[in-house]
Design a protein that fits this description.
Elements lengths: L1 H26 L3 E5 L3 E6 L15 E13 L7 E14 L9 E14 L4 E7 L1 H8 L9 E10 L2 E7 L14 E3 L32
Parallel strand pairs: 5-9
Antiparallel strand pairs: 1-3, 2-3, 3-6, 4-5, 4-7, 7-8
Length: about 210
């Protein structure tokens, strides 16, 4: 009797595990992602023609981007990766003179949708001119305020890639008395900037309402 009950319980557990794995393969997507080191550069505020023109002096934005290439598992008929999240980690010099030598860790999760497969596509975040001035005291050269840039890529909630501009990937999770998280200087996704409609086919599409943390 005990052996029969043990066999019955074991069979139910095994069935549950197999069923769970089957559902995951049917309703989820598995992906392999290749990614480059993140790069950052200063970009001036764009000027658009048409409509009423107003005088202004363009200031610098800081663009941080990386290149990804996504592949699905063998036998997949998918044409796109339905949802992909890039978690950004940007360490900038602390502007507080009393905390010289320390860093602020800025973070942002950006969700992308319908990311094309088997082709190079870029993902990005930005610092506004006001944020740059808060960090540096100047309207120019925001990249001089950046020390490290890292990112993680998640597909269906599973981390499939992490990379960094320097150091070891995952430094953002390491305990340190030299770096502290901060929400005082926001990172922005591309749709939150004047670059929203520019270079459209270069970048992965941002899911509306899902590009903030």
């Amino acid at each position: 009797m005990k052996n029969f009950l043990f066999y019955k319980i074991f069979s139910l557990i095994a069935f549950g595990i197999i069923t769970g794995l089957s559902m995951g393969s049917v309703f989820g997507q598995t992906a392999a992602v290749l990614g480059g080191k993140p790069a950052f550069e200063d970009l001036q505020s764009p000027e658009f023609s048409g409509g009423k023109q107003k005088p202004f002096k363009p200031k610098d934005w800081l663009e941080i981007e990386t290149k990804l290439k996504i592949s699905m598992g063998a036998g997949s008929k998918a044409r796109v990766c339905e949802k992909l999240v890039v978690k950004w980690y940007v360490a900038v010099k602390n502007p507080d003179p009393s905390k010289s030598g320390t860093l602020l860790l800025l973070t942002k999760d950006v969700e992308h949708m319908n990311v094309p497969l088997e082709e190079e596509i870029y993902c990005s975040v930005y610092l506004s001119p006001v944020s740059i001035k808060r960090l540096t005291g100047f309207d120019r050269a925001g990249k001089n305020a950046v020390d490290y840039v890292g990112y993680e890529v998640l597909v269906n909630g599973e981390k499939v890639l992490q990379e960094t501009s320097k150091g070891r990937p995952g430094w953002w999770n390491a305990a340190s008395d030299k770096i502290s998280r901060s929400d005082s200087v926001p990172l922005l996704n591309k749709n939150e900037t004047p670059f929203r409609a520019m270079w459209w086919d270069r970048y992965a599409e941002v899911t509306e309402g899902r590009g903030t943390r």
